[in-house]
Specification:
277 residues; alpha/beta; two-stranded antiparallel sheet; 10 helices; 42% helix; binds zinc ion
């Protein structure tokens, strides 16, 4: 943060707090006449604000957002190789480099799920016809039916572990998600489904990414997708490509829509986060 942006940043922080109960931990400031810029930039603060607004709009207003998230503290932290991390009432974004709007929504979706004791991702798993079975996943591996290397994920076409159950968690994902890999599980599925729902078919900061997630299944085997991954896309199309390429036809889109429109009854939340003094 530049010293000249101090006032602007303070106002943005106050607005995030007042409107959405989101606290950004400011790592910038002045003491003894010396300015500490911290890791945040003004552009990132704006990006965060815009991404939160996309969630607020999708949820039907700030009261709903506050009810769902129950207050969130956002900080930049050294979290290793991850872009972000989240628990209930808490989102961390990597101090190394910047973050995308997609990452913000993904992490806030985790915080939402966490505020309901990770029950929302369980509801998604059920709704989409999926289940988690490390036992069954183990059988697939031993039988050589897994699209991984023998006992680990691979980094070449047809070996990323995209088939149901062929991931670390033994997560069998049911109806078509926008993607899957070794790290996929119901919790990641929920966060990605929320981001896809918010971006899909719109013209916002998530829309291009959402579109790219789907169009790659029309590529030929061996072609490079918009994320620079080469894979056997034709083999995966039937598991991921929605009817007529329309993501709103998937159970995941329907699930998030039902969730934000109140058609699915929410489980008991953990309760409101007490603001720091
Ligand atoms: Zn995640």
């Amino acid at each position: 943060m530049e010293r000249s942006d101090f006032q602007y940043a303070q106002e943005k922080l106050a607005q995030l707090k007042a409107d959405y109960q989101v606290d950004v931990v400011a790592d910038w400031g002045e003491s003894d006449g010396k300015w500490t810029p911290g890791a945040w930039t003004k552009a990132e603060l704006d990006k965060l604000y815009k991404a939160i607004n996309l969630m607020v709009d999708a949820m039907g207003g700030k009261e709903k957002f506050i009810e769902h998230l129950g207050g969130v503290t956002v900080r930049k932290a050294d979290i290793g190789t991850h872009g972000g991390e989240a628990l209930a009432h808490r989102v961390s974004l990597s101090i190394k480099g910047s973050f995308s709007s997609w990452t913000v929504v993904h992490e806030f979706a985790h915080a939402w799920d966490a505020n309901y004791n990770w029950r929302l991702s369980r509801l998604l798993e059920k709704y989409t016809g999926g289940f988690t079975s490390p036992f069954l996943a183990g059988i697939l591996k031993v039988a050589g039916l897994s699209d991984t290397e023998r006992f680990r994920p691979g980094k070449k076409p047809g070996r990323y572990g995209r088939k149901p159950g062929c991931n670390r968690a033994g997560y069998f994902y049911g109806d078509r998600p926008s993607g899957s890999n070794w790290s996929f599980n119901r919790v990641e599925d929920f966060a990605e489904s929320v981001a896809m729902y918010i971006g899909w078919g719109k013209n916002n900061d998530l829309s291009e990414h959402a579109q790219k997630r789907i169009v790659r299944y029309q590529l030929k085997n061996g072609e490079k997708d918009p994320f620079n991954i080469v894979d056997n896309w034709m083999e995966y199309a039937r598991r991921f490509y929605p009817d007529n390429g329309d993501y709103t036809k998937t159970k995941r889109w329907r699930f998030v829509d039902d969730l934000v429109t109140g058609k699915i009854e929410l489980p008991q939340a953990r309760g409101r986060h007490l603001a720091r003094p």
